[in-house]
Amino acid sequence: MNPIEFHFDFVSPNAYVAHKLLPEIEGRTGRKFTYVPVLLGGIFKLTNNASPFVAFEETRNKLDYIRLDFRRFLEKYGLRDFVPNPGFPMNTVKIMRGAIVAEKAGWFAAYADAMFHHMWESPKQMDDPAIIREALDFSGLDADAILTGIEAQEIKDQLIANTEASVAKGTFGAPTFYVGDEIFFGKDRLLDVEAEIEYQGRQ
């Protein structure tokens, strides 16, 4: 079967939304998403892209509409735990490296849930090592293993490699999904992602 991938960075509120909704798609399709940690800032540099809050800063009414559309999406899917992070945007390189450490250690799912929680449900300044440690401890995760592991060169190199490979595949932002070779960008394409999973499953 073709792989199904979710390319994400914890800094993206849209990636948070996708993370919360993917289990429902997995339940309906019987297929699991492979989470691919990438660094959104690195993707922007490699693709000459920018956050909508930068790209549309000077466009009258655009950012107001983006915020309205996001609120509507949250309401539509009953995502009531979302809280805007006052530190947004921030540098998530440490916690994205942490995702790779957790993946190698075999407890990625718990780590991903925790990081999305501390970014977008109980928001904190998740580029501060002391706050990261507190968040990991609160979530019952091994803070020493994570904070030591993220300094390993192989972990740093893996995040760079993930990001570069994602861009080479077609990624220009987050969240991005791949169903086999088919690319879908953004939380608004989740229904299309599900339809493609089902279509490819019939082939």
What does this structure look like?
By secondary structure, the chain is α+β, with helices and mostly antiparallel strands. It has a single domain, classed as Glutaredoxin (3-Layer(aba) Sandwich), CATH 3.40.30.10. The chain is 58% helix and 8% strand. The protein is built from 10 helices and 4 strands. Strands 2-1-3-4 form a 4-stranded mixed sheet, sandwiched between helices. The mean pLDDT is 96.
Key features of this structure:
four-stranded mixed β-sheet, 203 residues, 10 helices, Glutaredoxin, 8% strand, alpha+beta, single chain
Topology record:
Blueprint: E1 4-8, H1 13-29, E2 34-37, H2 40-47, H3 52-55, H4 62-76, H5 93-105, H6 108-120, H7 129-138, H8 143-149, H9 153-169, E3 176-179, E4 182-185, H10 190-202
Parallel strand pairs: 1-2
Antiparallel strand pairs: 1-3, 3-4
Q: What is the CATH domain class?
A: Alpha Beta
Low-pLDDT residue intervals, each spanning 5 or more residues: none
Q: What is the CATH topology classification name?
A: Glutaredoxin
Net shape? globular
Distance between the termini: 10 Å
The structural domain count equals 1
Query: In percent, how helical is the residue content?
Result: 55-70%
Number of helices: 10
Strand proportion: 5-15%
How many strands, which pairing sense, and closed or not: the largest β-sheet?
A: 4 strands, mixed
What CATH architecture do you see? 3-Layer(aba) Sandwich
String of helices and strands: EHEHHHHHHHHEEH
Order the strands across the largest sheet as they lie in space: 2-1-3-4
